Amino acid sequence: MVQGNKRSYSTSLLITARMKHDIFNLTCMLKKSYNTSANSHFAEVPPPFPQQAGARPSLIPTTDLKPELHEIALQAEQYLFNHRAASTESVYGQDWLGFQKWCSSHGLSSFPSDVRTIALYITWMAKNGRVVSTIKRHLAAIKARHDDAGFPTPTHSAIIKGIMQGISRRHGKPPRGADALLPETLNRLIEKIDQTTLIGKRDHALLLIGFYGALRRSELVGLSINDIRWCNEGVILLLHHSKTDQCGKGMLVGIPRGKRPETCPVIALETWLVEAGIKEGAVFRGMDCHDRIVSKRLSGRAVPMIIKCYAKAAGLDSAHLSGHSLRSGHCTSAARAGVPHNIIMKQTRHASLQTMLKYVELGKLFMENSASAISL
User: Fold this and answer.
1) What pLDDT is stored for residue 75 in this prediction?
2) Which of 85, 94, 138, 342 has the most CB atoms less than 10 A away?
3) Quick check: 65 pLDDT over 50?
4) What CATH number does the domain located at 183-363 have?
5) Is residue 79 among the annotated active site residues?
């Protein structure tokens, strides 16, 4: 027992020594930056990223290439900058812009950044009420921009990790996920849809396909006519890209026919496509209040708006409903019905069992509950 305590104590001393070493280096860097001008400290590095959307420095020089190779070099850069999903790149772009503006307002350089700047930035975010997940996302954006330019990033410094641990311990709280749209709740929403209108037929199909397919909102609005294959059992959807399929290998999702015509996703989808006269292009389109199609593809932002609209009409609290509520509802309902984990994951396309089990635990919260067996 004593020997174990000695080993634990020596390990603690080693970790403390490493932290002190990093703090010493940071202190030296701070002194150096205070004794030199802000510009001279970054005199040997390229200028920061432009703030205009999509503007980036060239990472593949073309000055010494033959003219016929210039176009290939540009294409190589396009491939390089497309290695992340467009949605991720968009979010990172907004976070990076926020970091740039903050640095500019305080006379600090955002690119390439240093431990001091990032430490001050994440501390400022925590003091201003930003949640831990948001701060971590900003750190990921800063890392991504430095990686793209081939520069090392100090976001993985022991000091930054220590600060994040402190922020998590003081400000951390469990995330509030989207409420699940369970069958009984979804039925109440469907009852409020005016299916005599074209927009009602669209929303009817949207909710049912999203629920039965456990689709993310990006997958739902990304469907095209060529992605649908009709069969006796129902329809098969081809998802070209998804959160767990960034390289576009493609995933097939089966949508079975429902037990009742009014809640059958296959009938709802077919009715919408026939009535709207859609034979090619996007499955779901943007519409106005006069039942006119006004956009070639429905925006992902419209999905939670549609869900919240019908939830309010049904007298439900829509504050915690989102585009993820359909997918969450599918997982939770399947878990309640006793569907094996591997079958649920096959339909939901979850890459992580741990992530999927969160829905299983929620679905069985009252089914496997010791309190239910206690009678007072």
Assistant:
1) 81
2) 138
3) yes
4) 1.10.443.10
5) no
